[in-house]
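Notes continue from the previous slide.

Worked example: a multi-chain complex. Inputs as given:
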Amino acid sequence: MSFFSSKGVCTIGIELTNVQGRPIKVVKRNKKNRNLYVFSSKDTISGVVEIQATKKRKKVEHIGIELKLCGVLESNLESGINTDLVSSVKKLATAGALSDRKWQFSFPEFNMPQESYDGINTSIRYYVKVTIKRNYAVNIKQEKEFCVMNLDTSIPKSVPIKMEVGIEDFLHIDFTFPKSVYHLNDVILGRINYYLAKINLKYMQIAIIKREIFRGTEETFTEKQTMCTFEVMDGAPVKGESIPVRFFLENLKLSPTYRKIAKRFSVRYYLTLFLIDEREKRYFKQNEIIFYRKSIAKIEDK
Amino acid sequence: MSRKDKTPKISQKNQEQKKTPTTQVGEQTQLLDSLKAAARRSGFYLQRSVQEGKLSDSIKQAGEMLNGLRSSSLSPKNYYDLYLFVSDELRYFGLLLRESIKKEPIASIIYRDVQFTSRIIPRLYLLITAGAVVIENNPKKTREILLDLLEMCKGVPHPTRGLFLRHYLSQMTKDLLPDISESEKGSKNGNEKEIEKEIEKEPKNQKSNENENKNEKKNENKNVKIKKEESKTENNKNLQGNENEDKKNNVLPWMISINFTIQNLIEMNKLWIRIQHQKLPGNISKLERVSSRIKLTEERKDLCSLVGTNLVRLSQLDSVTLEVYKERVLPILLEQIEQCGDKIAQSYLTEAIILVFPDEYHIHTLPDLFSILPNLHQEVNIKNIIILLIERLINFANNNPKSIENTFLITQIFSKGISSITRKRTSLPRIHLLSILNGLMKLSLCLHPQRIDFINHMLSSCVKSIAIQKKLTKDEINEILSILSTPLDFYNDLNILVQLENYSMLIDTLPNENRRIISLKFLENGLNTLTIVSSPKKVSKLLEITKVLFLDSKDSISENEEDENLKSLFFREQYTVCRFIHLLRSENIAKSFKILQIIADTFSSGGTRRIKITIPPLVFSALQLANGIRQLEKEKKKILNNNNKENKDHDNLEDIGLSAKKIFEFIHKIMTSLTKLLPLKSLKLFLQCALASDKCNFEPIAYEFMTKAILVYNDHLKDPKTQYQMINYISSTLQTLRAFHPDNYSLLCNQCGGYSAKLNIAPHQVRAIVTCSYLFLSIIKQPLNIAYKEIKEKIEIQDEKNKNKKIVKVEKVKKIIEYKRPSNEPVLLYFIDVKRLLGCISRAIRVAGSLMEPSLLFELLIEILNTCLYFFELDSGAVNSSFINTLLDLILQKKSENESNWKQLLTKPIYNFYYLTFKHIKLCKKNKETKRLFKPIKIEKILKDFLK
């Protein structure tokens, strides 16, 4: 299937080949769902570009046609600062008149270490872009977006998490999770041990909080997003009790943890525990957990 | 229906306890209604999703519906209401799961998907529902799922919600628990291996992951050094240890069920206890706080059956055999009960164990049960528990006689257990201890009634427990009374009861009024069962036990008591005593006499009020004994006469120096105290004694008694009417005595005559004299041959002693004997003195004649005439025809003197008396046999005059 873009002058169609059997990720673009093919780093990105001139009677001049594959870190926090993470340009045609033409292209084993990402203010997008450069008029552009997901090969070393919450003589609780590193379909297992709980706790929940950290030129922006909350305890425990936690990550649409992409963007996840007492007072404790991608599902929901 | 019924009950309770009941109740009902409505709505969507077969939608809707159970504002009862409603709706969800799982093997997916639910309460309800379906579909997963569910349920430590959640767990799994059946017993090892394999096959399963985690955590836990948590950690270790052990030993499927149920029970119990300790809001007043606590306790008690279901479940498992119960179930349960330290839980669970499991199990685990009782919370009502156990055992023993092997061992265990309880539980109320001992006594009687020593031991324990100087409360007194009644009602034999050495000691601890009640009951028991107590030793014990009835004491009831009830009680007591002493007798005369002496000793300290009532029956008892001895002596004589051989019985009598004489001496002795107190009665008794001793032919004794009687008459009787009555008694008695020498007899007759003549009231005098007249012509009113025999016997006995004197008497008596009456029937005349007889009659006529009242005169005259006719008919020569004629003339003369008002004078009865008398004479004149005798009587004129 190909998408043609018309600027009144011509239509540019970009079609990716090598998509047989690829997983599809559904994303929202301009309030519409788009299915993107999922590629991984070192995959060969190949396809066909087809240009059809619409006004055949009139000759359209251009100063060259380029095909660019790029991964861009975009942010709406500081407008105009888009950082190319990777890019590669192929010249399809030198200056001349626009005519109906087809090109095959291929970026063999292209290196795309960063994954596609759709955040609140920041995103990473990959696309193939055809630009018909013109001297006297606006360039004619056409993009074909695709998605990049990488299976993590080097999984960070997992350490057990142990968090203690304590108010002297009132509360002494610890949370233990044997792992700090989880894959995206993992289950978080852990226990909450109570040693002292004079505070009348009402319930407890855990939450996974995502932080997008974007370092702009002047300041650093941090966006927090609570991915989910999950009630793990109802009522007040007595000392000595140990409450199990079992929390499935599968349905949460998480991304892996990203660190300092292009030296300015990170996505981090935190496991946060909230204790809420009967006066709705909250006590919390959080610890970073690291997500990695272990598999790519056939269809990744938006 | 039942749900609707419950709500009003709660309303009532609230109204009692809350200050603003209507709003509270209103709020609750409103809240419940709205939650129910919400649940109903979600339930509707749930059903639709289920019908459409949409699994993920159903999960969502079911979770939605379960949200109502997150409410904290409902009272436990209303929460229960909602719980029932929701869990009912959840069945649809279960149906869908069951359908889905049939189509494709997605058990683990279902089990996982329900866990996406973010709220814990809905999540766990769904997990349990799903878990049940998974097990149903694949029983091999039972162990895995059950353990996981148990573990996950820990996420709800909220007492009420956790309790219901776990109840749901118990409900959903109840039909899925693997159990053992006869057919399975053989192949259980095989099954087990399969299960083990199954577990090994799924190493990547979340569950086993979790187990690993758990292990890690456990290790960490151990490292955390918190002293207070020791017991808890211990518990965890145990759990873990058990699991490991289970795996090693190829745990049997049914063990899973037992462990699961016990574990759930333990957790539920903890939650249940925690309801009590919920923190109350800080802004309420002290009063509200107290009433809230009370309300909490009440509500908590309502929830006990939730916990109890686990016990019921355990008892329903066939795999819980006696051995398993003893080794695997009870120890854990008991440990839990002991550790939980909560009074309500401890008493409920202990009682529930006793009620739920078979009695046979209890018999074999008694020491275990008893081992925890002393350590229970001080406020736990140990008494109720033990009594319950005892009642069960008694019931069991009654329904399955001979099924208990070592009965004494059981009571020994009880006894030891109870003594250790009293040692350790200083706060055990005395009343409770008494109730327990009472129960144990009943058990002992049921199991081994022959062990009187044990009963006695129990009584001694009771006495010891009372020894502490503290006034007995009303309840305690009632309990002691019940204790005392227990062996009484059981044995219904005083002979056994008197073997209880400590019985009287226990009675002595009671206030007098209660001692009287039980003593009376004692005696009444003897009377109802007609138990003869024949050993002097037993008799003295009996009297010791019931001594309160015999002894005079300050607070004993008085005869002159104002209170009619008390007065009648006193008489009831004493009359019971009177009846009772007749049960105290032996076949052996010597023993009987000994018994009488013991009774007399006891009675002697009873004070005048009692003696008045109790001595007479004692006298009669003694008289009866005397009669018995008399019979023996007669037999002895017969044997002597016939065989000249000696009989051992009689030897005995002589050896102990016992004779009827001795008895009479005894009677004489006890009577002396009575004469002043009760002259009238003692007079009559003396007469009785005289009669009895006369029968025994003891002339001096009989004479003594007669003299005593007359003495009493002389000294103590002042009332004319009584005097008249008593002199009549005396003379009538005298007339029947037969052992007297005529001289002595005539002496006594003189005295009678003398006292009769001294009576103040003329008609009395007349009548008494007339009565006396009979003394002078005393006949033996027996058929001749018997009468002969009797007299002969007397003569012979007297012959032995003083031959000369007695011959005279024999002669005298014999001479008179040969009188024949007109009826040709010879009678024996015992004594006759014509002169004095006539003297009496003449005196009577004279005194009567001097009376001023004519009507009375006629009455007396006809009586005198009748007496005279009696003597005349005997044809003894004492009264002849001319005497009768003179009397008839006198009557006529008196009639003519009173002719004017004759009609008024002669009342109908008197007229009839005359009429019949005359008719009799007329008949006798015609009669062939009496014609001759009656010929001289001139009756015609008087007949004409009277009967016109």
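Summary box: Confidence is low (pLDDT under 50) at residues 1-6 of chain A. Chain A touches chain B through 36 residues (CB under 8 Å).
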